Amino acid sequence: MTAQFEKYLAGRAATVNAELARCMKTVDTAPAVLAHAMGYSLAAGGKRLRPVLLMASAEALGLAPRDVLPAACAIEMIHTYSLIHDDLPAMDNDALRRGKPASHMVYGEACAILAGDALLTLAFETCAQNASVKKIGPARTTAAIAALARAAGACGMVGGQTADIFAEGMPQGKSRRAAKLTEKGSPLAGKKDGWFLLPADAGELTKKKLLAYIHSNKTGALIAAAVEIGALLAGANENTLRHMRAYGRETGLAFQIADDILDVTADKESLGKSGGDEEENKLTFVSLYGLAHAGEAARICTGKALEHLSASGIDRKRAAPLESLARFITERTY
Q1: CA-to-CA distance for 332 and 334, rounded, in angstroms?
Q2: pLDDT at 276
Q3: Which domain holds residue 235?
């Protein structure tokens, strides 16, 4: 990471952090414990890659970073809510997040769930504020909200998380949760294990197909949405929007593959986590393809992302932060 890009990333993250703190002041009539739990997880740190990607996308098409701050904060709120829920005992059961005790370890499971719910709904209230920005207006904001909702919901992040949770154990060929759903007495009794882990029209379930679905949705959907929303708010034409969406999809996939690699190669302290994918018997790029192939796959995704960025019609100088972000996502060590 060059010093110039490091400065860019830190500056944009600081802008987002300041705006997130301001947004939290709007929940002043909520129970204090709930507001505190929401703020605790929002302020836990992180690289703020999703909001930075959103701002970089909008900037590349002529908007100022401040123009899209509501949407940038909204996507970080949704990301944070997903982390709170991901750490819960019913999910990944992680005690640490970003080197700090996970929300449920501090506030209890019930309050952690509610804090996640509250951040999700606050995200859409916050994103709607972009309608009052003169350069953007209601129509573009509505399109952005729709894109955000789809990426975060059943056909995006939540769908990917569902498949990820029920695929635990599949590296060894057994999914404990999936098998339990088909036990005698279940509404799904008699069904083949795992048939429900992909959309109904996806055809035969395979580990490769399932892994692609998990990565594209659990992590990739929100990253791709960040890029798409920045372009939508800036009023991108259809050709530019198509290539920006593809850039976002490839970058999102590269991010998750890199995460799979770091889970094996980086120490838990630098990642700020207590558990790991291998311990939880998760289906990952490394468990399915091996470390060397995973690294090559991430580089291929980044190459494709940069090809789409180049084909988007955006001036290369304006697109430079997006190019640096795509490279950083693959090459990062934390």
Answers
A1: 6
A2: 55
A3: 3-331
Instruction: Decide if pLDDT at 188 tops 90.
Output: no
Average pLDDT, the chain: 91
Q: Which ranges in the chain belong to alpha helices (H)?
A: 3-24, 32-42, 49-60, 69-86, 103-107, 109-127, 137-152, 157-166, 176-181, 207-214, 220-233, 238-265, 268-271, 285-289, 291-311, 316-331
What is the rounded distance in angstroms from the CA atom of residue 314 to the CA atom of residue 133?
23
Q: Which residues contact 240 (CB under 8 A, 6 or more apart)?
A: 61, 231, 312, 313, 314
∠ CA 167-285-296 to the nearest 5 degrees?
165
pLDDT in tens, 131-171: 999 999 999 999 999 999 999 999 999 999 999 998 887 76
198/210 Cα distance (integer angstroms): 7
Q: Is the Cβ–Cβ distance between 176 and 168 less than 8 Å?
A: yes
Q: Tokens at residue 61, please?
A: 């098409």
142 Cβ neighbours under 8 A, 6+ residues apart = 131
- pTM, two decimals, is 0.93
Q: How many domains does the chain have?
A: 1
Q: What is the pLDDT of residues 210-265, one digit of tens each?
A: 999 999 999 999 999 999 999 999 999 999 999 999 999 999 999 999 999 998 98
Q: How far apart are CA 142 and CA 148, in angstroms?
A: 10
Q: Which long-range contacts (CB under 8 A, 24 or more apart) does 300-306 make?
A: 301/250, 301/251, 301/253, 301/254, 301/257, 301/330, 302/250, 302/251, 302/254, 302/326, 302/327, 302/329, 302/330, 304/246, 304/250, 305/246, 305/247, 305/248, 305/250, 305/251, 305/254, 306/247
Alpha-carbon span 270 to 273, nearest angstrom:
8
> How far apart, in whole angstroms, are the C-alpha atoms of residue 32 and residue 15?
25
CATH of the domain at 184: 1.10.600.10
